[in-house]
Automatic annotation (TrEMBL):
<feature type="binding site">
    <location>
        <position position="166"/>
    </location>
    <ligand>
        <name>NAD(+)</name>
    </ligand>
</feature>
<protein>
    <recommendedName>
        <fullName>Enoyl-[acyl-carrier-protein] reductase [NADH]</fullName>
        <ecNumber>1.3.1.9</ecNumber>
    </recommendedName>
</protein>
<dbReference type="GO" id="GO:0004318">
    <property type="term" value="F:enoyl-[acyl-carrier-protein] reductase (NADH) activity"/>
</dbReference>
<keyword id="KW-0276">Fatty acid metabolism</keyword>
<feature type="binding site">
    <location>
        <position position="99"/>
    </location>
    <ligand>
        <name>substrate</name>
    </ligand>
</feature>
<comment type="subunit">
    <text>Homotetramer.</text>
</comment>
<keyword id="KW-0520">NAD</keyword>
<feature type="binding site">
    <location>
        <begin position="68"/>
        <end position="69"/>
    </location>
    <ligand>
        <name>NAD(+)</name>
    </ligand>
</feature>
<dbReference type="Pfam" id="PF13561">
    <property type="entry name" value="adh_short_C2"/>
</dbReference>
<dbReference type="GO" id="GO:0006633">
    <property type="term" value="P:fatty acid biosynthetic process"/>
</dbReference>
<feature type="binding site">
    <location>
        <begin position="20"/>
        <end position="21"/>
    </location>
    <ligand>
        <name>NAD(+)</name>
    </ligand>
</feature>
<dbReference type="InterPro" id="IPR002347">
    <property type="entry name" value="SDR_fam"/>
</dbReference>
<comment type="pathway">
    <text>Lipid metabolism; fatty acid biosynthesis.</text>
</comment>
<feature type="active site" description="Proton acceptor">
    <location>
        <position position="149"/>
    </location>
</feature>
<keyword id="KW-0560">Oxidoreductase</keyword>
<keyword id="KW-0444">Lipid biosynthesis</keyword>
<keyword id="KW-0443">Lipid metabolism</keyword>
Length: 259
């Protein structure tokens, strides 16, 4: 089987800086020979995304587009632009989430209506919006992945509204997998263990969560961006051609631990 991604093009959404999980995914896909298309939330991120892409070794013909996923027009326009520029894509990594920082601590009970809607809009609905807009570009079949977390399956202290948004994201992923399977487009989620990123800093007591992984996860260590990236590579490659609607935990096994 050909495991190379040469000749294939993937959209990576959500690189903010070198710690971003999306950047780990971009590196793994690049190493496998893929062409990359980066989208970023606003002009503010453009330079750092371009600078990071410049550090990729070997042939680098990446493309860059601004795409704020709260804006339907922007999403449609972005994928029309990508279609005009490259024609076909073979997959998309959705690595986007946001919740108000003051709602990622204390009790979920205090979640505001606005905070609830914002978290679900950016972290969950955006997957459906980008799946719909990118579908015409995956005319040769494709693979969509999104990033989720254990806090969508079980109560994780302080994760609060983001956990509820991840539960919605996980369910959306399954419904999308069912809708898109007949077009040979697979949709899966990677449930990553905690990794110190810009977004993770917003979650209260994040250091304690990491410490618990070191003490109780079967592998007794946190996972790395690279490990998540390589699972994304698997999901983008033909190795996973029979897998869709699945949540793959890349979390040092922490999700199997009870009390
Ligand atoms: P990150 O802060 O590097 O990435 C989050 C990205 O979301 C940023 O690039 C940000 O610009 C983007 N974003 C926010 N609002 C947006 C908008 N309106 N339009 C477009 N983009 C927008 O953090 P990360 O940890 O790499 O997060 C990536 C994904 O991984 C998220 O879905 C997150 O929930 C998930 N995840 C993270 C962890 C962790 O511990 N870091 C664990 C499991 C899952």
């Amino acid at each position: 089987m050909n495991l190379s991604l040469e000749g294939r093009t993937y959209v990576v959404m959500g690189v903010a800086n070198k710690r971003s999980i999306a950047w780990g995914i971009a590196r793994s896909l690049h190493e496998a020979g893929a062409r990359l298309i980066f989208t970023y939330a606003s002009e503010r991120f453009e330079k750092s995304v371009r600078d990071l892409a410049d550090t990729l070794e070997g042939e680098n013909n990446s493309l860059f587009y601004e795409c704020d996923v709260t804006n339907d027009e922007a999403i449609i326009q972005t994928f029309e632009n990508i279609q005009n520029d490259v024609g076909v894509i073979h997959g998309l990594a959705h690595c986007i989430a946001f919740a108000n920082r003051d709602e990622l601590k204390d009790e979920f009970l205090n979640t505001s209506r606005d905070g609830f809607l914002t978290a679900h809009n950016i972290s969950s609905y955006s997957l459906t919006a980008v799946a719909r807009a990118s579908k015409p570009l995956m005319s040769e079949g494709g693979s969509i992945i999104t990033m989720t977390y254990l806090g969508g399956e079980q109560v994780v202290q302080n994760y609060n509204v983001m956990g509820v948004a991840k539960a919605s994201l996980d369910a959306s992923m399954k419904y999308l997998a069912n809708d898109l399977g007949k077009h040979n487009i697979r949709v899966n989620a990677i449930s990553a263990g905690p990794i110190r990123t810009l977004s993770a800093k917003g979650v209260g007591d994040f250091n304690q969560i990491l410490q618990e992984i070191e003490e109780r996860a079967p592998l007794r260590r946190p996972v790395t961006q690279e490990e998540v990236g390589d699972t994304a590579y698997y999901l983008m490659s033909d190795l996973s051609r029979g897998v869709t609607g699945e949540v793959i935990h890349v979390d040092s096994g922490f999700n199997i631990i009870g009390y």
